[in-house]
Each structure stands twice: as structure tokens, then as C-alpha cells.
Amino acid sequence: MDRIKYSDLDIRVAKDAKSETYDAWLGPDRIGTLVYELTAGRVAMISVAVEPEYQHHGVSGELIAGALEDVADSGRKVTIICPVVRSFIDDHPEYAGVVDPERPGIRSRR
């Protein structure tokens, strides 16, 4: 999958398996977090938060895309609990194949 840049900032997304988060870093500062939970062989994406001063800069898009790509690379599937993740996938259907078809979580309203 070709990587699309969603943010106007130079963000690095890193997984922290111990805390079950994907974090968006701008230099030394963590500016966003996606919380997940491993459950029954799939990844439940629980919530996304971005520091207020970095909202509306595409940080959540970078964070979600990075997390979805990592999950896809691992061969796992995603169950969507977070409405922000659901909206992102609705807007970017190229990621729909990462969603667990048997336990998708929040379903698209489209």
C-alpha cells in the first residue's frame, strides 16, 4: 500500500506494545495517542486523542493510518470501537480490508 501523508507536520508513529498504544511523535513530544487492546487475536481500536494545539493538522489521520498499516502487516484484523477510526476508514476505503468481517465493531453508516 502506498503511504499517503495526512498531516502537514513531520510526525513519527510508534507502537508501544507494553502500554497498548500507538503514539504520534513530533520530535521529542508525544502529540497524539491511539489506544488499542489485543483481544482474541485481533486489535480493538478503542480511542484516539490529539493534543489540542495539534488538532486540525492531520495528526489523527497519520496515527490511524500508521496503526492500521502495522496491524495489516502483522496479519491481524481490527475491531473498531472508536468512532474516529470508523470515520477514517469510511473516508479511506483502502483500509477496509483490515477490519475483521466477523467482528467489525462500529459499522459504517454510509
Give me the secondary-structure topology.
Blueprint: E1 12-16, E2 21-26, E3 29-39, E4 42-50, H1 59-74, E5 78-80, H2 83-91
Parallel strand pairs: 4-5
Antiparallel strand pairs: 1-2, 2-3, 3-4
Q: What would you say the CATH architecture is?
A: 3-Layer(aba) Sandwich
Specify the number of helices.
Answer: 2
CATH class: Alpha Beta
C-alpha termini separation? 24 Å
Total strands: 5
Short description:
By secondary structure, the protein is an alpha+beta fold.
What does this structure look like?
Helices cover 23% and strands 31% of the residues. It is of the alpha+beta class and 110 residues long. The chain has a single domain (12-98), classed as Aminopeptidase (3-Layer(aba) Sandwich). Strands 1-2-3-4-5 form a five-stranded mixed sheet, covered by helices on one side. A hairpin with a 2-residue loop joins strand 2 (21-26) and strand 3. The protein is globular, with a radius of gyration of 13 Å. The two termini are 24 Å apart. 30% of the residues are buried.
